């Protein structure tokens, strides 16, 4: 039979339900364990905490290795943002799917005396990496609370200035931790490979020959911590406003190449190509005499720069992408002026993290503490509600993005 639009109708291949079957009375108990695991694995991760209280069968399913395998087959999950507060003794996240704050169980290993002051320094996949005061690293799954210490880094590596710490997750069972160190004229990187459970040999990076930018090659004072002032100058101090962002960096994978980006002490972006084993510096976005605060983020495999700047008695908040062909920075998103002007003159420190098309922004100063979620595709900027625990508002310095995955192994 032919339809009115000229298309030929085909017999329906849909399986008919038995006569008298009542879908309203359908129960998940009728599913096999395999099907039940596949159904439950598609629930939001926050629901996993409640599976054990439903019934004995669901509790057994939630604890099984086959359920973790079913969860690993889910291509992606809405990101959670692991928040960093001054006390460093609790695990608080912002759930971007439910738009709510959650407090997780803090891993016992991080409560040990030697790890009590550990700060989160990087995240990828379902894992967050911490660094303790001795310079050792711990990797944690915030959802399950599983945590372990990595083998110590070579003592010689600890003598070099550390610029960047980045994690690259290749699957839920394999990851690499990358450290970029050395003087800016002589950078090198070292990789911890979880598959081999060891640190690989240190590799030197050469300066890219066609790099027209000039790095600040002055020797740094190793006894002081350096950060970028709002005037773009390098300031030495024994205090760091956001210790977790001291090694602020991102890693991208594109066309088979892995590149780590970090901010130099003078506020420029340095790119370290781990595959080609060379480094280069990007052109400065603004002259040094401008008032600004800057951070680098990764969104869908590319590096972006987020900048809060002040000019003509107003503040602007913009997101920039670098065009490799024209060698210029192009604006891709901008906070509404009425919203950004609130930060004018308040010496706001900006700490950001990317996740897909979103950028989570922490803005903090003596006068305020605010959190904004930006969608770089729609250019939508939403100020998030305050996080209150036990009736008190919490202030966070920065955040790290990760996928809430119970199957992610440390």
UniProtKB/TrEMBL annotation:
Cross-referenced Pfam families, in alphabetical order?
Answer: Beta-prop_KIB1-4, F-box
* Database matches in Gene3D superfamilies: 1.20.1280.50, Kelch-type beta propeller
The superkingdom of the source organism is Eukaryota
What sequence ranges are listed for the domain F-box? 25-70
List the InterPro entries hit by this protein, alphabetically: F-box-like_dom_sf (IPR036047), F-box_dom (IPR001810), Kelch-typ_b-propeller (IPR015915), KIB1-4_b-propeller (IPR005174), SCF_F-box_component (IPR050796)
Q: What is this protein called?
A: F-box domain-containing protein
**What organism is listed for this UniProt entry?**
Hibiscus sabdariffa
